[in-house]
Amino acid sequence: MNLDDLELEALATRAPSRLELWPQILSRANVRSMAEVGVWKGEFAESILGKCDFLSRYYLIDPWAHLPDWNKPFNVDSAKFDDIYAEAMHRTAFAAGKTVVLRGQTKDVVDQIPDDSLDLAYIDGDHTLRGITIDLITLCPKIREGGFIGGDDFVNTPWQHDARFEPTLVCPFCVYFAEAMRWPIIALPHCQFLMQKTSGSRFSFTDLTGRYADLSLNKLPPGFPRKA
Prior knowledge:
The protein is of the alpha/beta class and 228 residues long.
């Protein structure tokens, strides 16, 4: 199945949120085994597992721990992360027979996923340049031929939060990664993206939102004074 076969433009037009969009994509793409990177409190996992009874394996990947080298707003203290982890486990307990919890950073736990076993990986973890680079490269061997990589926070500005925090570079890095791999990638509404791991294809970037004409990083943070 190719990206074009998923009729993503029609799906994107109708879906009011990412929680409504992804179950339709997973169903059309015949996803049975997937991983989510960056589970946080488990809202996304709970929604997907509740709506997609066709899933047989769902990997939950998240360190749920304070990281000294991660400068992002969600890097709370360890005690709060223990509560967040408990909430995620509570939200997904109904699907315990399908879930595999990998508590750690992607690079440290990814080897517990067999190569070529995932139909899709959903990345919503460390959105810094370092984080998205590590997530994409380490997850790539785990995706079967013809499988997919998607994710959240595909925002067309590095200053998703403000200048106090490390820039968010899911976009444009995912586009450049797809170009290097010669894969097609699509920008979806609600700051989502989807690319397909497929040999013998050619790179293409399809923007279904009209927000990604300029992928340059020459965008100043809000409130930053411009030269006269």
